[in-house]
What does this fold into?
Amino acid sequence: MTTLRTRVAIIGAGPAGLLLGHLLERAGIDAVVLERRSREYVEHRVRAGVIEYGVANFLEESGVGDRMRREGLVHHGVELRFDRASHRVALSELYDGRAITVYGQAEVVNDLIKARVATGAPLLFETEVQSISGLLNSTVTIETQSPDGPLTIEADFVVGADGSHGVSVASIPASVVTRYERVYPFSWLGILAEAAPATEELIYCRHERGFALYSMRSPSVSRLYLGVDPNDSLENWSDERIWDELTIRLATDDVPAIQRGPIIERGITAMRSVVIAPMRYGRLLLAGDAAHIVPPTGAKGMNLALADIRVLAPALIAQLHEGDDRLLERYSDTCLERVWRAEEFSTYMTQMLHPHATDEFENGVQRARLRQIVTLESTARSLARNYVNLSSLQEPGA
Ligand code: RFL
Ligand code: PHB
It folds into this structure.
């Protein structure tokens, strides 16, 4: 049995855990990042694609934004399609010239892994955390299973950045935590395709047959989504059916049909909202998807995860360098204010863009909301601020 002693044990090498590890390393604080999957798996997991304005700045200030600035696609608007017509929401014109960056989560994770490996700081892949104990004591004990057998970690603090089904939330007594949850009556079928993007900007589309989203990863790789029934499965979707359905939903009266190409990745994701409150229990701090899930329609999940770290890193540094607990004590409240705003925005986007199968009253309301965005500047402006920079709207000057 091997025991390793560290100041901060970070569970999960997703965007949240890796960025925290990086910032603690820069501050000279000893930390260990534990990840149950292999490096190869984590670097190729296809997920989010939109980085908010303030979060992109934060990655740059953290010293891990060089490649994002070079290769990321800066988008100054998004397209809304409904009733066979296309409408541009001019994000930058509506919001002081600010823009989003389209840069895959896998690339963010790659950049963060490279940065950590370059410093030689511990990042243990294929090491699964199985239990956490002593959260109210002075030392936390974490039992893991590593490629070399059982490994015990002793730490001052543990950060649960282990995603939505993680072990960290499960180690908090149910009586001291509240879980708020909503399940939506649809899922997203997502594909990655070797096809040149159909347009220069993302397209969010509401069609009677269901939602569709056209996104991208590079000038030659597209990322597309279809809203599907939650009980649907990939076996029902041949490549041809996927492309046919995307073509029908995204069609307008005056835009050419989308480009098809080989599908290189596919998956179905259920849509739900979860908020865990508070985000702290003793020496355990929750961050990212471990504490909150949003439906992907607002493109907020990764942004919220990184924004948690913008609050958590200085709080842990103040505690560990100076014994100052004040920021850490406010961590949960500060984050939850932003998280609930993101839940509100993500719910609004989700409910506006996914047509209801039978409720025509609901469908009338959805259309009215969409028309309001494209006809009323104050509504468009509010959407632009939330879409481009929700996670930083509490910051001075935002
Ligand atoms: P992650 O990325 O899930 O990382 C958690 C890591 O913890 C590991 N782990 C463990 N390791 C050791 N021991 C254990 N016991 C462990 N249990 C778990 C896992 O293997 C994993 O590596 O969480 P993090 O860092 O909080 O990051 C959150 C984001 O991944 C997530 O919010 C986004 O992907 C959500 N999301 C989007 N967010 C955006 O901001 N913009 C988008 O455009 C966007 N699109 C999306 C999305 C998520 C999607 N899916 C598939 C859920 C589109 C999709 C389809
Ligand atoms: C993506 O590019 O994967 C993406 C973009 C916008 C969303 C969700 C996902 O709302």
Remarks:
- Residues 11-17, 34-37, 42, 47-50, 105, 128-129, 161-163, 166-167, 188, 190, 269, 288-289, 296, 299-303, 305 surround RFL (ligand 1) (CB under 6 Å).
